[in-house]
């Protein structure tokens, strides 16, 4: 038996605003940041659980405080009973009645719970000697549904529905795992499309993306329609008529504005319109979906929990679902999200980028392919070529696809030197800045 001895948190911020990497219509100057947690135990194996919540700068300290507020639940507890009942840990943490008042199940506290849950999964996977995707993919359907809190879902997805989905995928698991190891999981890239980039940079990066084998690129839109038309036309010239190009408005528009704006770009055949309006406006997304069809609507990076995803699917408001590894309460809630998508037959194309999001979310897509949806058809993981060098196991992109990780853990462990170098002190250091 071993015990949890500490939840060690830190505020880590990268000065990405200096280069306009990550700039979009709503977030002109993000500093990619991590509210980072290490769960330490007294086990002799020396294994630590690493995870983080991604933020874009100011407020990262608030997020760290949220994680700190969970220490009382975990420090001093025996590790093994927690790891043996991850569904129970999830329900315990989201069920803290006083902390729950701050949400419920949304925002800073919910994401803090996600960090702690993900850190425990890191320990569990490292102890098993498996990358997270493989650990999850080798659990039985019964073990997997025990991880999920079906509360508030049962009018759309019951435990029996979930079991049926997982059992249907069971026979092909071994074949798909082999296929995944051989060919990876498709990626698409947002690198060419940041709003702060010049047309020349857009053109160069779009060419590079195609040459690198990515299956799609994405452009940020929504600040100025004339600019969007010019940039989309440029991208179409570079990529040709058939290459998928998605657009992302980062919540910029009113509902009617979204419909008009997207239709004004329809001649360039957007592969999807992402985050057209408020992430909480389920019915607004449904109206937009009807108003821009056959252009698909995608959202999810700010969907605060499984209930919002349920409604988006029930309302036929999205045709592409974009889970995020750290927006909801960790691996457990994202398994619920993957099962919901499978139930409704909607492809999951995760949000990634930021710092460490690619490293983290690839495990969920790979698990989905092996054990849930059983398909990579129409599915791909976002990729942005920033800040990977700070991770112990950086993403390995080959021919535009994510190579299946083989290192044990959840992929979220940041190098200790990077954590030290970018520990927030109240101002950016300019030395060693990656611009
Ligand atoms: Mg986006």
Automatic annotation (TrEMBL):
Location of the Mandelate racemase/muconate lactonizing enzyme C-terminal domain: 199-295
InterPro entries: Enolase-like_C_sf, Enolase-like_N, Enolase_C-like, L-fuconate_dehydratase, Mandel_Rmase/mucon_lact_enz_CS, Mandelate_racemase_C, Mandelate_racemase_N_dom, RHMD-like
Superkingdom as given in the UniProt entry: Bacteria
Gene Ontology terms describing biological process: amino acid catabolic process; carbohydrate catabolic process
PROSITE patterns cross-referenced by the UniProt entry: MR_MLE_2
CDD domains: rTSbeta_L-fuconate_dehydratase
Cofactor requirement: Mg(2+)
EC number(s) recorded for this UniProt protein: 4.2.1.68
Pfam families (alphabetical): MR_MLE_C (PF13378), MR_MLE_N (PF02746)
Catalytic activity: L-fuconate = 2-dehydro-3-deoxy-L-fuconate + H2O
Record-level Gene Ontology MF annotations: L-fuconate dehydratase activity; magnesium ion binding
Record key words, sorted: Lyase, Magnesium, Metal-binding
Protein name: L-fuconate dehydratase
């Amino acid at each position: 038996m071993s015990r949890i001895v500490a939840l060690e948190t830190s505020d880590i911020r990268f000065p990405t605003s200096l280069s306009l990497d990550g700039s979009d219509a709503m977030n002109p100057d993000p500093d990619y940041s991590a509210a980072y947690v290490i769960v330490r135990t007294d086990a002799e194996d020396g294994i630590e659980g690493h995870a983080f919540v991604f933020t874009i700068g100011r407020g990262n300290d608030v997020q760290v405080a949220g994680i700190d507020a969970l220490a009382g639940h975990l420090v001093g507890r025996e590790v093994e009973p927690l790891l043996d009942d991850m569904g129970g840990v999830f329900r315990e943490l989201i069920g803290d009645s006083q902390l729950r008042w701050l949400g419920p199940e949304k925002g800073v506290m919910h994401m803090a719970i996600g960090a702690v849950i993900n850190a425990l999964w890191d320990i569990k996977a490292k102890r098993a000697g498996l990358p997270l995707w493989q650990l999850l993919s080798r659990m039985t359907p019964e073990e997997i549904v025990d991880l999920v809190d079906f509360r508030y879902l049962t009018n759309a997805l019951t435990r029996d529905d979930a079991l049926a989905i997982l059992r249907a995928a069971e026979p092909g698991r071994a074949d798909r795992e082999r296929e995944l190891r051989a060919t990876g999981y498709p990626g698409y890239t947002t690198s060419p499309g940041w709003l702060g980039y010049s047309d020349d940079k857009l053109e160069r990066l779009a060419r590079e993306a195609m040459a690198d084998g990515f299956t799609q690129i994405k452009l940020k839109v929504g600040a100025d329609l004339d600019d969007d038309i010019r940039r989309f036309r440029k991208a179409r010239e570079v990529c040709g008529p058939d290459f998928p190009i998605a657009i992302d408005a980062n919540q910029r528009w009113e509902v009617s504005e979204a419909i008009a704006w997207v239709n004004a770009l329809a001649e360039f055949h957007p592969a999807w319109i992402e985050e057209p309006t408020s992430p909480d406006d389920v019915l607004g997304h449904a109206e937009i979906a009807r108003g821009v069809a056959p252009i698909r609507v995608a959202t999810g990076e700010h969907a605060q929990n499984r209930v919002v995803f349920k409604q988006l699917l029930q309302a036929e408001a999205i045709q592409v679902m974009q889970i995020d590894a750290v927006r909801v309460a960790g691996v457990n809630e994202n398994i619920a999200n993957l099962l919901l998508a499978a139930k409704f037959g909607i492809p999951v194309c995760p949000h990634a980028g930021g710092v460490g999001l690619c490293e983290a979310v690839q495990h969920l897509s790979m698990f989905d392919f092996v054990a849930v949806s059983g398909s990579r058809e129409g599915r791909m993981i976002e990729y942005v070529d920033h800040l990977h060098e700070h991770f112990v196991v950086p993403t390995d992109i080959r021919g535009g696809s994510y190579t299946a990780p083989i290192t044990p853990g959840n992929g979220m462990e940041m190098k200790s030197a990077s954590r030290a170098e970018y520990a927030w002190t109240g101002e950016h250091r300019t030395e060693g800045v990656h611009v």
